[in-house]
Amino acid sequence: QNLVFICCFFASSLAAEPETLSTNKDYGLESYLIGTGIYDMTGPAAQINLMGYAQPAQTASGIHMRLRSRTFIISQTPERIEENAINLQQASEHVEEERSLFRWNWLQKPKKVARQEKRPLAASPDPERTVCFVSIDAGMGSDLLNTRVLKRLEELLPEQGHDGKRLCHLENLSISGTHTHSGPAGFLQYTLYQITSLGFFEETMSAFVEGIAQSILRAYNKLERGTIDAASEILMESNINRSPSSYRLNPQSERDKYADQGDTDKTMLLLKFMSDKKKPLGALNWFAVHGTSLNSTNLLISGDNKGYASYLMEKHFNGNDTLPGKGDFVAAFASTNLGDVSPNTAGPRCIDTGLPCDFNTSTCDGKTEKCIAFGPGQDMFESAEIIGRNQYEHGTKMFNDAKSERLRGAVTFRHSFVDMSNRNVTLAHGDVVTTCPAALGYSFAAGTTDGPGDFDFTQGTNSSNPFWNMIGGFLSVPTKEQIACQHPKPILLNTGSAKLPYQWDPSAVPVSIFRVGQLFILNVPGEFTTMAGRRLREAVRNLLVANGINEPIITIAGLANSYTHYITTIEEYAGQRYEAASTLYGPHTLSAYIQEFERITKHLLDGTQAASDKPPDNLSKKQLSLVPPI
Asked: Which residues participate in catalysis according to the annotation?
């Protein structure tokens, strides 16, 4: 019986031939080649720490919801597409493509397939006119994860273009985490993120790499001509600001510009993908809310509210008879500037008295751990369902009947690595300031109302403590220059200078911008707060308008391609709540990101190459793990 099952499995996975692309006619600039793909990336579901709350005791013991990778490939329509599409050649060369190496190597070793010379077709999709966006049910992106995925794609995708690139490559690939706090840890290469997970964990990384790569392959094999429409509407009662006292530090005049939405972004942006035959292909959605409906007591793997929203929308379009992750329609609810945004809409209260927490410090009788925010449901699972269903219902309504705008025009991108440890930044009035080597402040250890920290740390701390200074000093003692650079942050962990057993935080970070017609996606490697995100979008919008693009659609894709904690405004930084204490590169971090995005946007508009700093080191050979294999 087992043998019959295995044979049937492989037969079904290899039966469907990839779609071919029909001969092109003049479809105009509103027609794109579109591919959507989904694949399981759940990974280990027991005996592994969950990523997000940094609680050593939060170790997985089962599955609430499987994790998936969802890919959207958008390519500018070539002048001519031939019947013998290149993916047919690829399918014949890699018959083992659906045999996930890490899942099935206990049955047999994958066959070594002799590589054939791949001659790119003149009419095949152009890697320089393509963007590949991947939303993953995971805590965040990871630079090492991108490196491993790109290596796997060298085995799965054919070379295309004159320089031998794959259709999805370093510069046009964005892997963005939904920021669920209930996925397995161990896939980031820096020490700080491995402390509670007891190091790097290859089983997590392998599952993530294969799931992402296979979702990209599926999207590639499903490329077909279609259209993309963008719609945006307000969604209420689905998020709150968890650091409202910090938000109020921003200028009143600036806050007044957003009075209709308040202290969180409530606009949902949805992309609607349709084939030329009017078949729904997928939906890609951005709405600002943390993946923290499930709190630190949860021990089950889950995609949290955004994973549930994706599940519901895919079930809606694929039908109830379709198993999760198996239908043609792919729906991603991706992350954006969610840094200070919580799904726990009932707000924080003192769990011992039921009274409100202190507004500025989020404490109860001086204790952080007693101040906890609650969702709209009777328990955390119902809360995740409610917030997820709100997103699903709103997104489905927008897909079906909301006023939308057809995307028209070129597909292009620019990518750059930026050394954020000592970046010169020219401010609006001409002064030149610098960013700092990475460091975390005292309030980092206080946590948030979604997940309070331990010990005696509180949010809003602007002074240091000799005892904790001594503890932090065992890691690295900050110099006088570092202390001045990070001011007013009192440095708890000087991670930028810590090198044992290897680097603790990234210095070189990836930034990129994707253009699809009048849509611009800003891929950021961290969590921008509400106002920080608004400032970034406004800066890019002003630049685009000055260059003749009058009504651009701009979104931020958060936690993409690496992870650098939080990015606050300089005013919020002065308040030193959790998000500010976790702004790694000092008070001018946001200004540096704005400067760099303006730079690469200019290159994108001018058609010139963007300069890049040295990419981050690959620390694979240095990784340590104290977790036994599962």
From this structure: 342
